[in-house]
Amino acid sequence: MLPNVRRTTISGIAALSLAMTAAAPAHAWGKKEQDLVKGLAAAAIIGAVILNNRNSQPATTQRYTQPQYQPPAQTYRAPASYQQPTYQPSYQQPSYQSGIYSSPAAQAFNRLSAYERRAVQTRLSNWGYYHGGIDGSFGPQTHRAIMAYAGDTQGTNQLSTTAGAYDFYAQLIG
């Protein structure tokens, strides 16, 4: 800041000295000529001060610059290819939640004829042991009904073998 003040002062003194030397013979001039010389001297001094201030101060105003467009980088992409999905059907034996379907009572029941299977379910339903549909298939309700009837009459030991289950069904159908 101090060098700026020094420059301004020096340029102001130089402008005044020029104006004084030029104005000395101007006493013979009229009032308008003298005012003209004073105005030119003042303009020179103010111009020098403004010029010094502009050159010494850093630019504080920011200017807008348009961003340059940069195209995106080109990357190689292989063309998409479609592959027909392959379907391979497979059958899985259903896994049952308990061993009732592989028990000797179930095996013997499933080997009976459809008429005999419905007859077993009908008899158990008539006696109040079976509450499902008379469809001739061995399921959890049929299993519970057979086990309950066997427990109330002859005991469930007879149903532990396939031969004993056949005898049980033969006596049930009767």
UniProtKB/TrEMBL annotation:
The keyword Signal applies. Residues 57-88 are annotated as: Disordered. Keywords: Signal. The keyword Signal applies. Residues 1-28 form the signal peptide. Residues 116-149 form the Peptidoglycan binding-like domain. It comes from the Bacteria. InterPro entries: Peptidoglycan-bd-like, PGBD-like_sf, PGBDSf. This is Peptidoglycan-binding protein. The lineage of its organism: Bacteria, Pseudomonadati, Pseudomonadota, Alphaproteobacteria, Rhodobacterales.
